[in-house]
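Protein in question passed on here:
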Amino acid sequence: MYVEGIAGEDLIEGHDAIRHFRVMFDQLRVMAPSPRDSTTLIPEVAAALGK
C-alpha cells in the first residue's frame, strides 16, 4: 500500500499493516455521509465559511 503524507511517502507491505489500513478505511466509510447527504452538506459548509 502506498501512503503519501506531509512528511513524505511510504510503501507499506505486510498483511498485518495492510489489514490495519483496511479497517481504518472501512470505519471512515461507515462514518462518512452518503453521496446524497454530501451534496447538501458541502454547499452548507462553504456558505458558513463565506465561500
